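input
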Amino acid sequence: MENQKQDIINYEEPVISIKGLYKSFDDLQVLKGIDFNLYKGENVAVLGKSGTGKSVLIKIIVGLLKPDKGEVIILGKQIDQLTGKELDAMRLRIGFSFQNSALYDSMNVYQNLAFPLTMNMKNLTKRQVDHAVNEVLEAVGLKTKIKQMPSDLSGGQRKRIGIARTLILQPEIMLYDEPTSGLDPITSAEIIKLINEVQQRYNTSSVIITHDLTCAKNTGNRIAMLHKGKFLKIGTFEEVFDTNSDNEQVKGFFNYNFTQ
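output
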């Protein structure tokens, strides 16, 4: 699987390029000089404890926050220089899978999936919408749940439907916000498998924001270890968690996850 994953990555084509990124809120400095590339077809897991700046980073990538300093280029465009209309168009190329799935409780699964299509592609026929809905439901393994309400789904199923709704617009970049948070180990393993299947099937480039080391290890082609607003290390799992490393923050994070 690892060789297969490596084969689809183009390390000469960054889809996200961040240089010298700083972000503060009043006197609180959150990001302190971030440099980071995500390449076409690659999964990068941004790993860190709560409060390290992971959520701020992802909000800057989608243009919800502006950097104080630095350059953030997404799909060839400097994100903080885009007009409102250009930013809306860019966001259609970026899929954001929310931590809580963000499904509409009053809509069934079909309606939840059809909604972003009918809102953003008004010229589609009912047949085209039906086909798109069924295709993404098949991709996440939940075709039988098409008429179910979100309240009738398990936590893992809601996560899957949330990912399906993100995929339906066929984004080039996927952003996963704590995809395994609150899930039992078996369901977490299913979501990890789905993230890898999405990478293979849709050739997406993904940032996976997580504090779950198992998720990071099994989804990331590379891992970016974020601590107090800076990347301590970026590399493969083995490079970041080198057993000979004397970095106490890295060792502490590994021990917290795997030696409890």
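quick obs: The longest strand covers residues 10-25.
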